[in-house]
Design brief:
Length: about 475
């Protein structure tokens, strides 16, 4: 296998892309999308044109709070994908899947530059493609920021994974600086870039202590730190508002959340039915404990085969990309995209070495774990498909109804459709296409759900069925 990969790198790359497409067929087939985030971009482009969208979303500004996203590169990429959301949903989804393939190829390239064996690098790419930690960022168009910033951080890492003992060359310094800046303009989580430099230095020193020198990595750390400091200074007023607790609660950090979020992120990979993280799904301690135990077994295998330094490096690599969100009240699963790199490399290294040393039982366990993780991936894809299908049906019904009832709609979910009310609300809320004079004209009347929108006397009351379609209620006008 190693011989074939080294002799046919182009074919190996094409095979990895094909695997990415095949493994995400459910996402590509989804007729709709996950939330209103994606549709807001579509509405803006449809109503005002792409040039206006680029000016509105591509402008660099500090924002009123840190939760305000300053992600011009990420927004431009999402705007590009959003153009096909209505006419060809598969094409919009394809952008996310191809992004994932590109990150996987870059990951393999960085590993090979670092001197990792072809088999281990190839397996790491395969495990990354199939990882459930990457599924939400791949299937949810509004979460593609995570793909872009990780892509640029990998490009930055490629500049320093194998440094000579002398100084950092100007060319490599410029490479690192530009890639880090691009990552920061894709998502603010890229402030971890200096930590990536330190992690790479630690791993290089652990693997090759004799020829290691801190000098070039110290210079690389400073270079990576420069754009991060500039970014934080530029956004200092917004950060101060968030730290003072005067911003949106969802983006107000509190250190008390960190231990709980760390535990949930650590247990997530092997919670095979889990799609999103919330306090509700973690009330029972047994399933998270079992999932965390399986994850600990992977760390134990890394320690046994490669030593404690690499085991600690794995833990650091897994949590490094999560550090900026650990203190938030409810960080999303899409934030695990970077952690998938560490897990995929660890599994690939353990599998390759256990097979080479004839520890076939351990190799079988790794393959079983990889299979379980792919099952988790498919579970998440299926949830994204179901949400997209519900959203597409609901929007079709809403648009057809509004064509004959411009006064507005009050949606009343039927009892067996209550679980889909959140999907329907997210399909139309805060969307310019469903507002008149700044007021939404699709309201919801459901137990436990906020009533949003107009409730004018001529608004039409419609029942939402379990298939997410609308039908008239007996007494229509209010």
């Amino acid at each position: 296998m190693a011989y074939w990969i080294e002799r046919n790198p182009l074919l190996a790359a094409m095979a990895l892309v094909a695997l990415t497409l095949a493994a995400h067929a459910v996402i590509l087939a989804a007729p709709g999308f996950y939330a209103n985030d994606e549709w807001q971009k579509f509405d803006h482009i449809r109503l005002h044109g792409f040039a206006d969208f680029a000016q509105a979303y591509g402008t660099i500004r500090p924002g009123p709070e840190f939760g305000y996203p300053m992600r011009p590169l990420g927004f431009l990429e999402q705007g590009f994908a959003a153009q096909w959301m209505q006419s060809a949903p598969w094409a919009a989804h394809l952008v996310g899947v191809l992004n994932h393939a590109l990150v996987a190829l870059t990951f393999v390239w960085v590993l090979r530059r670092a001197g990792v064996a072809a088999v281990t690098a190839g397996l790491a790419g395969v495990f990354f493609v199939l990882s459930p930690l990457a599924t939400m960022a791949t299937g949810w168009l509004a979460a593609s920021f995570d793909q872009l910033y990780i892509l640029f951080l990998l490009v930055a890492a490629a500049a320093i994974v194998k440094l000579p003992p002398g100084d950092l060359s100007p060319a490599r310094a410029a490479w690192l600086l530009l890639a880090t800046t691009a990552a920061l303009l894709s998502k603010e989580t890229a402030i971890v870039a200096p930590g990536v430099v330190l992690l790479i230095a630690f791993m290089v020193r652990s693997g090759h202590p004799a020829g290691f020198s801190w000098r070039p990595y110290s210079a690389a750390f400073v270079v990576a730190l420069l754009p991060v400091v500039a970014y934080l200074v530029f956004r200092a007023p917004a950060i101060a508002v968030s730290l003072a607790g005067q911003a949106d609660a969802a983006y107000t950090p509190d250190a008390r959340y960190a231990p709980h979020n760390a535990w949930r992120f650590f247990a997530f990979p092997f919670r095979l039915k889990l799609v999103e993280m919330s306090a509700t799904v973690f009330r029972s301690p047994w399933q998270p404990l079992l999932a965390a135990t399986v994850h600990l077994l992977l760390i134990a295998a890394v320690r046994r085969l490669f030593g404690p330094r690499f085991a600690w490096a794995y833990v650091a690599g897994y949590f490094l990309f999560l550090l900026p969100v650990l203190a938030l009240p409810n960080p999303g699963v899409h934030c695990l995209y970077g952690a998938a790199l560490a897990m995929s490399l660890a599994m690939a290294a353990v599998l390759a070495k256990s097979w080479a040393t004839r520890r076939y039982g351990l190799a079988a366990l790794v393959l079983a774990g990889a299979g379980a993780l792919f099952v988790h991936n498919v579970v998440i894809q299926r949830q994204l498909f179901d949400a997209g299908q519900c959203q597409a049906r609901f929007l079709d019904s809403v648009d057809a109804t509004l064509a004959t009832t411009p006064a507005g709609i009050v949606v009343v979910p039927e009892p067996d459709a209550a679980a889909f009310a959140r999907i329907a609300i997210r399909a139309v809320s805060a969307r310019e296409a469903y507002e008149v004079n700044g007021r939404p004209f699709v309201a919801f009347d459901a137990p436990g759900q906020p009533v949003a929108g107009t409730r004018g006397k001529d608004a039409l009351r419609m029942r939402m069925t379990a298939t997410c379609m609308l039908r008239p209620e007996a007494a229509t006008p209010r």
